[in-house]
């Protein structure tokens, strides 16, 4: 085994405890064999004497002892009691240290999460939640994961300050995750009833929160909408639709797959036209969106909810519009800068 000093800091108390237990087992074996050889006792009597000596009970030997046996017992008392004392102190130190580290970790997590704002909360780290986490990391946006299963939470490989091993259906859990300051929440637990509780709780705590919920059964979709979900996604329905499209319209399916392929660095993005943006009041054809940024504006959603699909070049951009574009990541980032009010 490697020396204790070469181990990471968090493993050293555990290593000392393991070494102490091994030492105690070695001492017990030494005492048992010693009494058997010197006194000629049976294994049971020798083990009894050994345990009684180490624990300092003091009931007395199982049979009269010889002078050599007493001398051995004196030496064994010093070794055995010392080893047992060291084991006890090591166990206490490890317990106290683990409690202190756990308390410090909780305070640090609470402190870091209290600083979060405009972040996303992902409830559930199953197959769906794990993929959402992957997309969040790729987009480099702040997020917090809430998962009651410690094993699934650990498999995400996220720092402790980004994971809450809690029940997402509880008010205090979402409050700890900063739901009042969050930008959006994904309820992707494997049970529709649990997702319903999450949506109800989140909507109550933050009426302005954008909530996307997973529906395991198709019948749960209207209930989740009534509970407060802005959008409900049923992975089985979407999957079957994609399979049908791949069979009936393979070219269309290939086109959609090519847009979403990470290797092409191509994707959809939505940008909101803020006050003071140089795009405000201009027609699409008079901007650099298509000519310089090489972005296709697939749709424009007006502030009043009107959706304009495939807008013409004469369509005027207004403050509060939501532009949905297709392009490369760097170009979409520049469009976002323009939409926020910075001139290109």
Low-confidence stretches: 1-11
Mean pLDDT: 84
What is the rounded distance between the termini?
62 Å
The share of residues in extended strands comes to 5-15%
What percent of the residues sit in helical stretches (DSSP H or I)? 40-55%
How many domain regions? 3
CATH superfamily of the largest domain: NAD(P)-binding Rossmann-like Domain
CATH 2nd-level architecture of the largest domain? 3-Layer(aba) Sandwich
Largest sheet: 6 strands, parallel
**Class computed from helices, strands and strand pairing:** alpha/beta
Number of strands: 10
Stated plainly, the CATH topology of the largest domain is called: Rossmann fold
Q: Which sequence of SSEs, written as H and E, runs from N to C?
A: HHHEHEHEHEHEHEHHEEEEH
The radius of gyration is 33 Å
What shape does the CA trace take?
elongated
CATH class of the largest domain: Alpha Beta
Figure out the total of helices.
Answer: 11
Strand order, sheet with most strands: 3-2-1-4-5-6
């Amino acid at each position: 085994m490697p020396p204790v000093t070469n181990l990471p800091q968090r493993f050293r108390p555990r290593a000392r405890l393991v070494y102490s237990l091994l030492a105690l087992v070695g001492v017990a074996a030494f005492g048992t064999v010693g009494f058997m050889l010197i006194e000629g006792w049976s294994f049971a009597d020798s083990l009894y004497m050994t345990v009684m000596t180490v624990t300092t009970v003091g009931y007395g030997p199982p049979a009269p002892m010889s002078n050599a046996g007493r001398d051995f017992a004196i030496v064994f008392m010093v070794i055995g009691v010392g080893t047992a004392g060291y084991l006890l102190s090591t166990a206490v130190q490890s317990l106290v240290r683990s409690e202190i580290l756990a308390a410090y970790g909780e305070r640090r997590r609470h402190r870091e999460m209290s600083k979060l704002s405009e972040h996303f909360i992902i409830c559930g780290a199953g197959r769906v939640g794990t993929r959402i986490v992957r997309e969040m990391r790729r987009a480099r946006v702040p997020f917090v994961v809430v998962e009651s299963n410690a094993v699934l939470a650990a498999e995400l490989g996220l720092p402790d300050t980004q994971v809450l091993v809690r029940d997402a259906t509880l008010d205090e859990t979402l409050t700890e995750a900063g739901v009042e300051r969050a930008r959006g929440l994904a309820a992707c637990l494997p049970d529709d009833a649990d997702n319903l509780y999450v949506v109800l709780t989140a909507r109550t705590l933050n009426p302005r929160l954008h909530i996307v919920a997973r529906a395991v059964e198709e019948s749960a979709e209207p209930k989740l909408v009534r509970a407060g979900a802005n959008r409900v996604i049923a992975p089985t329905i979407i999957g079957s639709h994609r399979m049908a499209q791949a069979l009936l319209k393979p070219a269309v399916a290939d086109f959609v797959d090519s847009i979403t392929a990470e290797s092409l660095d191509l994707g959809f993005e939505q940008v909101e036209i803020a006050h003071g943006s140089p795009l405000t009041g201009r027609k699409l054809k008079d901007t650099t969106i298509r000519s310089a940024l090489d972005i296709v504006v697939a749709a424009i959603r007006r502030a009043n909810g009107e959706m304009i699909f495939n807008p013409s070049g004469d369509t005027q951009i207004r403050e509060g519009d939501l532009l949905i574009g297709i392009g490369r990541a760097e170009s979409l980032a520049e469009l976002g800068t323009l939409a926020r009010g910075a001139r290109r």
